[in-house]
Amino acid sequence: MKSIGVFALAIFVLLVHGASAQNRRSDHPAGFRMYVSTDQGHTWKADWAPIEGLSTRGAVDPAALLMPNGDLLLYYLGSNQTQGDPARSQPDNTWRMIVARSTDGGRNFKEVGVSYSETRGMTDPFPLPTGDGTVRLYISRGAEVFSVTSPDGIVFKKEAGLRSNRKGGVPGALRTRDGTIYLFVCRREGIMRLKSRDGLSFSDDGAALKAGPGKFLCDPSPLANPDGGYVMAYKEKDAKVHDPRHDTVRLADSLDGRTWTARPGTIGTGSVPGLVIAAEGVWRIYTTGPPPMAKRPR
User: Does the reported pTM lie above 0.90?
Assistant: First the structure.
């Protein structure tokens, strides 16, 4: 496939990552749609993960991190834009990456506060421990990715330079057991791989998952599987349908973190899936989308 221009790639990334689906409306509480599995991702049950004390009018782009003490931190874009794409505009010209904490294995969250803010559009945070006790958060800005770091996973400071310079956005990151760091980004071809040893300087490393005819793939959320190998949640989207409510969540597996094989079938609908395997072995995927019918207030 011929490469597309930088501007076209940026617009493609904005269209496909699905940030326009606001996760707070008058007809349902603040939080994220959640899929739960107790059999290593083979069967799933739809549920809802509420966020107590959400400080913005909406929340999108969830990504979870299991902390050493068993708590879960959930990062998301807190948006006060109620119509259109929150990546493009905010009422006060401020974009906020927010963190919430769960102390019950990821069932319920309480907002901690703003982790990082800018007066430029940004979306899709993805956390990765650096190995020295700090947390690096990769963040998308169109077809680029930059990063911020924190000693505690709560308050972050921006790092110099870009991790993906016009090579794709909407990042997911993985540190393999041999120390290689892969940054997965979205492009028209599918979910692409960038490779690094330090988590800062990346080089192209080909396609991780190629999109099928008439499909877009995006929103990679890779993770080491405690039972061996690696697993990635991601979104599949019909190229002709822009409504993120019709996005589907899928899984892929890898033995080495580099070569991936998609599992058959889908988990459910939702956009920007964030996968985490909690301490007790329960798999959870948080997505942008409304609660299942059984969880909606009457």
Answer: yes
